[in-house]
Design brief:
- The complex is a heterodimer.
- Chain A is of the alpha/beta class.
- Chain A has nine helices and ten strands.
- Chain A folds into two domains: about 160 residues, P-loop containing nucleotide triphosphate hydrolases (Rossmann fold, 3-Layer(aba) Sandwich), CATH 3.40.50.300; about 60 residues, no CATH class.
- In chain A, the strands form two sheets. A six-stranded mixed β-sheet of chain A has the order 6-7-8-3-9-10, sandwiched between helices. In chain A, strands 2-1-4-5 form a four-stranded antiparallel β-sheet, with helices on one face.
- In chain A, β9 and β10 form a beta hairpin.
- In chain A, α3 crosses α4 and α8 packs across α9.
- Chain A is globular, with a radius of gyration of 18 Å.
- The chains are: A alpha/beta, B mainly alpha.
Chain lengths: ~240, ~280
Amino acid sequence: MAILEARGLVKRFGPVTAVDDVSFEVGEGQVIGLLGPNGAGKTTTLHMLLGLVTSDEGSVRLFGNDLAHNRLHALSQVNFAAGYVHLPGALTVEESLIVFAGMYAVRRPRERVNQLIELLDLGELRKRRIRHLSSGQQTRVQIAKALVNEPVLLVLDEPTASLDPDAGDRVRQLLLQLARETGRAMLITSHNMREVERMCDLIHFMAAGRIVATGSAAELASTYGVDDLEAVFLRVARG
Amino acid sequence: MSAAELSAVRLPPASAAARRRRVLAVVLRDFYVLRRSVPRMLEIVYWPTVELLIWGYLSVFLQARRVPAVVAVLLGGVLLWQVLFRSQSEVSMAFLEDIWSRNLLNVFVAPLTAAEYLTGVVAFGALKLIVNVALMAAVALVLYGFGLFSLGPGLVPFMALLLMMGWALAIVTIGVILRFGQSAEVIAWAMAFAFQPFAAVFYPVSVLPAAMQWIAKLVPASYVFEGMRAVLAGRALPWRTLGAAAVLDLLYVIGSLVFFWRMLAKVRANGGLSRFGE
């Protein structure tokens, strides 16, 4: 069963159609990539799936329920991390995770936070304030926050943006490990083609608000007659 | 993960226990921010004390020139005004903290309802206010011999009515900032002061021009401050006018919630909420 079904999503901002008839599904344990150049509509699509933006047309069903009418149940099983969203800088890592465990009504917040601190190797950072952490460390804490409710679906918007190659690689390894070990479904946007190649089972390419190509990295390369996903990206981005 | 495994991890999201936990998470977040922020801690004491010193010594000066009951009237006004101003600004600041730390989207993608969020920030604002008023009352007592409890049993309805008005203004403030973005944050400090001339904090409504008196009749706080002066002058508590203030407060709260929900729907529709992540 699909845990997420987006059907005919349309979003217009004035005269601009940011998302135009986008439909796709995410199945249990699947890692789906949403790729495309800047302004393709990826983030608007993700934000519609998370209820941050309301669609003008179409519907989002999470776990079989319409998001518009079952927001509470749907969002309790989803979580989100993005390079452009931060955690409260004044709080320590532990405090921040405790707060979000509460916001997701986790039954045993301290126990869950301890598990995450161990899983993401945050022990030494536990008592440090978020604002004093490096970008890579903050991303790890963001991912810990995104796992705090054991989400069935993890939505990641450019999770490794602004990280150096080393920190980016560590985060990718971690996400891959999580996908393999927990069978958690993920929906990822990224501008890093190698990241997407390594992580995603299926990729949707977006351009000008529409999904213009779908397939695995190898299928897409074959369809476009190029060697890799980066070349596909350039073809799509340049029309 | 099976449904049974999931329910072992999270409380059922619509249960009372889950709702309570989410509200407490907002309170806890605000507490952590306060505990780790020296400027925020100082704010609880600094501005109220400065105001109390200025107005307190002014009233002592005026009383020495035989202006009757001026100490009590001015200090009562200062103290009760703080209840209104702080209840509005504390709640607005809690929301602004989420914007300043670029955390707002994390909050809005959590299964936290707008009502739970507002309840959390209002509850923590109320806790801060209790500390704030207690400190100010102690300073007023030590420096000027003015006991806040000299207002008698009227103190409870006075404070409750001002709190309600302050929270309604805070909810409007949050709605305005949601709609117009961070550039509108100045309203968090200015909103309550826009009502101050009509609230008749330090003077009776009767000194205002006729048009302003009409506006003052629509401001719940004006009834409270008139009532305070009546009590300090030895007259009975004007329950009827306080009842009118309570009705107005109720209208303010309902209006503010309607406004807030409309603004939230608007920014979800026009993408304004997403822009808080940029």
